[in-house]
Write a structure and sequence with these properties.
alpha/beta; single chain
């Protein structure tokens, strides 16, 4: 697997997002149009291989998947989400924002529980801004199930909102309260790191990315398997520790 260099700008990602979401309820479309200014999708896209398979758990309206396909990544992409409204919007994006070939490589599923997830293993499994929405009593189960679906030698791509500094966390808490009508609780990143380590994953990228008033905690893990080596990681999957952007 190879990864493209992160050559996209925020503006380019935002323009692509507007072209993906051109139908449906105006308010929901506008929320998607604004997301690239708050969430570092250009970095996330640089971590998705150009070929292979991607499972996006908690895909929401499918923005990461749509962007990956629109940027020319020849991947088999699967998105699952618990929200019927989000999946419907993702399906509308698939129909109106992608060409025929791209649509054929994108599958979307309404998944009420882990039991509804695909059982296959993927080259990349992503959890983007998901864990703080998951019930506290099943967070460990969700993370374990995500790790189980990573192929040997594959990647777990994890990003969530940061708990520090507190003022950034508070603003994101207010954001989700207003937009998602959810009282969220953050998962300490140390718990994610510990669970990944116990599962035998190797951390190959760790950084904090600040965008506007939001703080993002990014972690990339590799599952041991064929081709696994700390010294030979493709593209942007080199080891980065403690970097603040």
């Amino acid at each position: 697997m190879t990864c493209a260099d992160p050559t996209l700008t925020i503006s380019e990602v935002a323009t692509m997002t507007r072209s993906l979401y051109c139908t449906g309820a105006l308010a929901r479309r506008k929320l998607q149009h604004l997301r690239p200014y708050a969430c570092p999708f250009e970095t996330l896209l640089s971590l998705v291989p150009d070929t292979g398979s991607l499972l996006d758990i908690g895909c929401g309206s499918g923005l990461l998947l749509g962007l990956a396909l629109r940027t020319g990544k020849f991947i088999q992409a699967v998105g699952v989400d618990i929200s019927d409204e989000a999946i419907q919007m993702a399906m509308a994006m698939r129909q109106s924002g992608l060409n025929a070939g791209q649509r054929e490589r994108l599958a979307l599923h309404l998944s009420r529980s882990i039991a509804d997830w695909p059982v296959a293993a993927f080259d990349v499994v992503s959890l983007i801004d998901v864990m703080h929405h998951v019930r506290l009593d099943i967070r460990s189960e969700v993370l374990e199930a995500a790790i189980a679906r990573v192929k040997p030698g594959g990647i777990l791509l994890y990003k969530d909102m940061g708990r520090r500094p507190r003022w950034r966390a508070l603003l994101n808490w207010l954001h989700d309260l207003v937009v998602s009508r959810q009282w969220i609780r953050y998962t300490p990143i140390a718990e994610i790191e510990d669970a990944a380590r116990k599962s035998g994953l190797a951390e190959i990228r760790a950084e904090t990315i600040n965008r506007l008033v939001y703080g993002h905690e990014l972690r990339v893990y590799r599952k041991p398997g064929p081709g696994f080596a700390h010294g030979s990681l493709p593209g942007q999957l080199r080891e980065v520790r403690g970097l603040t952007v």
